[in-house]
Amino acid sequence: MKKLLITMIVAVLIAGEFFAACHADRRPGPDSNAIKLPPPVLKSSVSIEEALQKRRSIRSYKNEPLTLKEISQLLWAAQGITGGGRLRTAPSAGAVYPMTIYLAAGKVEGLPPAIYKYYPHSHSLEFLKPGDFRENLSEACYGQSSVKNAPAIIIFAGNLDKMSSKYGTKSLNFICQESGHAAQNVYLQAVSLNIGTVVVGAFEDGEVKKILNLTGNEKILYLMPAGKI
Ligand SMILES: Cc1cc2nc3c(=O)[nH]c(=O)nc-3n(C[C@H](O)[C@H](O)[C@H](O)COP(=O)(O)O)c2cc1C
Question: Which residues have CB under 6 Å of ligand 1?
Fold first, then answer.
C-alpha cells in the first residue's frame, strides 16, 4: 500500500513537471505585439556534411536587409519546436528549456527596428522595445564591428532560476552548454541560407541586459550577428 502511494506521488510530480514544461513560454505575447513568423522550411539542397564543411565565423556582411523568412529560419534553428509538442532543435538538460532567444532587428524586411522575444511554441515574435540598438550592443561587445554592421543580432539568454530548482550548482554549466548547441544550429542553418554569422562571447553582461530591459536572473550567453555574405 505504502509503495503504491509513493508511486502515485512520484507519478503526479512527473506529470506536473511535464505539464509545467508544456506550458512554459507558450505565450505568443500580447495579441497586439505578436508577429507570426513564416513557417520553417524543412528541406534544403545543402547537406549537413556540406554545412559542417563550410561553417565559418563570418564578421562582415552585405549592407542588405535580411528577410523575415531568413530570420524565421535562423530562430527556428536555434530553438524551434520539433517534436512531442515541446521538444526543440537543440537538446536541453531534463528538457527544462531555460533559454530565451531575443532578436535585435536593425534592417529586417517586415520588422520595424526593435528588440523582440522569440516564442518557440507559436513560432512568433513579441515586440518588446522600439529602436535600432545595434550600435549600443556593439559597444556592450567592446566595439565589435560585426555586431554594429549586421542587419540583425540573435541574443541567447538563460534563466538560472528555471534551471536551479532542478540542477542546483550545475545550472550555469548546463545553460552554457545548451547555448553551444543552439548556436551551432544557427551556424549550420546560416550556411544553408548563405548567411554569415559568428558567436560573440565577449560582452558586458550587465550592459546587454540593460539594452534588453532584462531584470531577472537571466544570464546573457551569446550574441550572433547575422547578415548576407
Ligand atoms: C566561446 C566563444 C566565444 C567567442 N567569442 C567571439 C567574439 O566575441 N567575437 C568574435 O568575433 N568571435 C568570437 N568567437 C568565434 C571564434 O573567434 C572562432 O570560432 C574561431 O576564430 C574559429 O573560427 P571558425 O569559427 O571560423 O572556425 C567565439 C567563439 C567561442 C567558441
Answer: 56-57, 59, 144, 146, 198-202
